[in-house]
Structure to design on (524 residues):
């Protein structure tokens, strides 16, 4: 799909700043919609397919499309530095497109500015050679519609009003005549290679920016192909449609609210054939081993999302400085360093750090196993819940309340201890909180790729148990309390390091060939 300059025959690209096609050789400019040089890329509206060169990455298997004669030497999905040209392919012609409105220079400037506000950034992220790696790619999205049939619907609704301290609820039965029409039912990511969590971070795109598709807009950019079945979003389409009808009804009935579920049951419609629209995204990929981190910008709105790992060296330097400052301040309060009280504070902070680690474990578990992820095919096979929304287990709620309550109680108890005989009870409370934390982690830690969290979780509970044993009926000497304090400190450091490890683990993800992604919803 070579776009040749009508003036000199040179290669043309879409210039984002002037919103026109421009020749790289003679600088001639042309309007995309009026460009008429005969080539395979300029097609009429009655043609449903178009020819593109398809490239397949040698490292991850991701496929990209690009105009002919455009050299593709970089894969946005895995960071691979070489891709293999397969052959010219017939792909379905998109229905519409949002052209790039943000230039590469603007992306680089905004990205460099954003790094200034992020702490502990690895040096490699600020190097100009790395930042130059931003690539523009058009991602396909399904634009779905449903056909509402002409019908008379009997509905029930209610209106809640208040006067002073009295609340009034009025119930209504009413009939609504639905006209025969086609309405929008949402926009959804159609790329199997773009992680849905990434798509969500740079959403939304503006509906007003959508224009009829013209292949001229692709000049100088890559394009992904639609590879996610639109059927993955049947439940989302149903929910989106019901909410839209509900909103229209509330305007019509002046505040009478009808449940969304009732609307979905009584209003009938049929899905229309979906069309695809290409949305612009700037990609920057950082790779380490078999995992990658993405920085992305919405090519239309300029919204930036960056996955930045933590630089351990910088973090440890600042942590050491902070420890010295805190140590100096605490020296002003000599009673704080009494061995008995110090062991209580250390035990409490150890429990708190374990709870924080548990939160990291849950996040990793949810993402690595694609829990509540509508865009993943395996989700539909394993789960009955098709809404993609997390449902809280009543037992988990109870354990959380119990854990927080005991932690607060233990905190007050620890600060009030003056007699060594009371500390044994304090440690027992901390053990219960630790056990609840481990119970909440359940088998999550065994269902993530990196199971390193098992070590600090086990060590933390053993340290608390040792506190109970050492603070038995006989009043131990101070060095035993110092031993407990040092053990808690080791446990805290291990929890801290594990949390940092998981933070870095979460800002990277497997390269595309290590997992199957099946899209994401992105409401306009």
């Amino acid at each position: 799909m070579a776009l040749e300059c009508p003036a000199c025959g040179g290669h043309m690209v879409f210039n984002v700043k002037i919103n026109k096609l421009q020749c790289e050789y003679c600088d001639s400019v042309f309007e995309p919609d009026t460009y008429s040089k005969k080539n395979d890329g300029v097609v009429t509206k009655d043609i449903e397919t178009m020819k593109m060169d398809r490239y397949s990455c040698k490292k991850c298997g991701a496929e990209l499309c690009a105009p002919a004669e455009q050299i593709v030497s970089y894969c946005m999905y895995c960071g691979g530095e070489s891709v293999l040209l397969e052959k010219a392919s017939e792909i379905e012609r998109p229905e519409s497109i949002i052209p790039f409105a943000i230039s590469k220079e603007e992306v680089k400037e905004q990205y460099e500015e954003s790094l200034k506000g992020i702490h502990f950034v690895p040096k490699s992220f600020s190097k100009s050679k790395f930042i130059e790696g931003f690539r523009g790619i058009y991602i396909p999205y399904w634009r779905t519609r449903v056909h509402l049939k002409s019908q008379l619907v009997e509905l029930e609704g209610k209106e809640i009003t208040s006067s002073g301290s009295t609340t009034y609820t009025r119930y209504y039965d009413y009939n609504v005549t639905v006209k025969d029409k086609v309405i929008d039912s949402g926009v959804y990511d159609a790329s199997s290679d773009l992680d849905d969590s990434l798509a969500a971070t740079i959403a939304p795109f503006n509906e007003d920016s959508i224009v009829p598709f013209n292949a001229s807009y692709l000049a100088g950019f890559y394009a992904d192909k639609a590879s996610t079945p639109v059927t993955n979003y049947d439940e989302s389409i149903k929910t989106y449609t019901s909410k839209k009808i509900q909103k229209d009804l509330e305007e019509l009935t002046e505040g009478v609210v009808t449940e969304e579920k009732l609307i979905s049951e009584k209003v009938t419609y049929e899905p229309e054939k979906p069309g695809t629209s290409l949305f612009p995204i700037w990609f920057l990929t950082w790779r380490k081993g078999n995992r990658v981190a993405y920085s992305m910008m919405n090519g239309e709105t300029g919204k930036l999302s960056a996955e930045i790992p933590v630089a351990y060296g910088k973090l440890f330097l600042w942590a050491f400085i902070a420890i010295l400052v805190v140590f100096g301040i605490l020296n002003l309060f000599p009673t704080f360093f009494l061995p008995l009280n110090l062991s209580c504070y250390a035990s409490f902070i150890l429990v708190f750090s374990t709870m924080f680690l548990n939160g990291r474990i849950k996040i990793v578990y949810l993402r690595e196993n694609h829990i509540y992820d509508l865009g993943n095919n395996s989700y539909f096979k394993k789960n009955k819940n098709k809404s993609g929304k997390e449902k809280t287990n009543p037992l988990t709620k109870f354990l959380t309340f119990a854990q927080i309550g005991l932690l607060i109680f233990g905190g007050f108890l620890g600060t009030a201890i003056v007699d060594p005989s009371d500390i044994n009870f304090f440690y027992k409370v901390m053990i219960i909180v630790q056990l609840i934390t481990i119970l909440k982690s359940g088998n999550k830690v065994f269902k993530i790729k990196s199971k390193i969290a098992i070590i600090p979780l086990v060590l933390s509970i053993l340290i608390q148990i040792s506190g109970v044993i050492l603070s038995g009926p006989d009043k131990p000497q101070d060095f035993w309390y110092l031993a407990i304090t040092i053990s808690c400190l080791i446990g805290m450091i291990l929890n801290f390091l594990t949390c940092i490890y998981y933070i870095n683990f979460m800002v990277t993800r497997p390269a595309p060939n290590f997992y199957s992604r099946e899209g994401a919803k992105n409401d306009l």
About this structure: Confidence is low (pLDDT under 50) at residues 37-47, 376-381, 384-388, 513-524. The longest helix spans residues 339-368.
